What does this fold into?
Amino acid sequence: MSRWERSNRKPYRAKTAAWAIALALVAAVVAAPCLFADEEEEEPVLAPEFTLPNLDGTEISLVDYLGKVVILDFWASWCGPCTRAFPDIHALEEAYADRGVVLLILCFDKDDEDARTYLVENGYATENVLWGSLEDARAVRDLFGVDSVTHTLVIGPEGYIRYSGHPEKLTADVLEPWLLDELVVDPSEDAADS
It folds into this structure.
C-alpha cells in the first residue's frame, strides 16, 4: 500500500471509530434504564384461607391471624433442608414476637406422631404445627401454588403474601418491612386475662 493510500485511509478510520463510539453511547443510554432499574415488583397476592387442626387437636384458621405477620413454613421432619432451616425460622419468630410475628408450620409428615416425636425431642412446641393428614397438607400447599416442602411464606398483617421462597433465605432484613411498629392488643384479651 502506497503512502498516499495510507494517508487517505486515516479519515475513514477516524469516521468509523467516531461512529462506533456514537453507537456505543446510544446503546448505553437506551440500555441504562433496563440495566439499573429495580426489578419490577409483582402485585401482592391475598393469601388463601384455610383451617387445619394443630398437633394438639385445636382448629387453627389463617384468618385468626389477620393483623399479625405470619411466617408459614412448609415443613417435614424427614426433610433435611427443612430441619436445617427450622432453628432460624423459630429464632425469627422469637426475636420479633413483640412486633406481631407468629409462626405456623404446615407439616408434611405421613404420621402426626413422627412430627410430634421430632418436635418434642428437639424442644419445639406443637401447638403451632398444623397437621390434619398428608392429604390436607397437600391441599393447602396447592392452594398457595407451592411445589416443594422446603418453602416458606410471609403473610403481612393485611393478609397479603409478602415473601415466598426457601426458608434459609428468609432473614430479618427480608422480614423487616412487614413488621408492626407496635403490637396492637385487643382490649377484650386484657379483660379475659384479668
